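ok so I'm stuck.
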Amino acid sequence: MMNEVLKAMETRRSVRKFSAEMPQKEQIDTVIKAGLQAASGKNEQAAIVIAVTNPELREKLRADNAAIGGWDKAFDPFYGAPVVLIVLGRKDFPTHVYDGALMLGNMMLAAHSLDLASIWIHRAKEEFESENYKQLLKDLGVEGEWEGVGHLALGFAAEGLPQAHPIKPNRVFYVE
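replied:
not stuck anymore, here's the structure
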């Protein structure tokens, strides 16, 4: 029998169509806690999460992310997800991007284990190079220099979960 962690790794898939239903705060907090438990270089824990459930800020993120991506103004790079978890890494620590990536991975698995859907969305780096988002950090009381690592769009799948794609061959090489 496969344990639950391995099962989640095999069955989790990115979702590109979310319902408008907001997850419960406890579910969001559980996903974030899983991210905070991620391994980090020297246990420095040099990554943070900004949880966006505010519709106005979520809309601003959507518009800015679409503009950075070069898409039509109406496109939603977060695919309708009502929650966006933004992961940032502290620039003065050399493993901050890796630490943030591990955090995002943990959160995707935790979301799946709670029957929530998720997808990692890029362009947080470009967003948090702008003065508007640097000001957001200041407004939140976040000090220091931060680099956007990624967004986790989070919510409920509108049309179920996609099926797994086959694993490509020739990706593992043993040296025995």
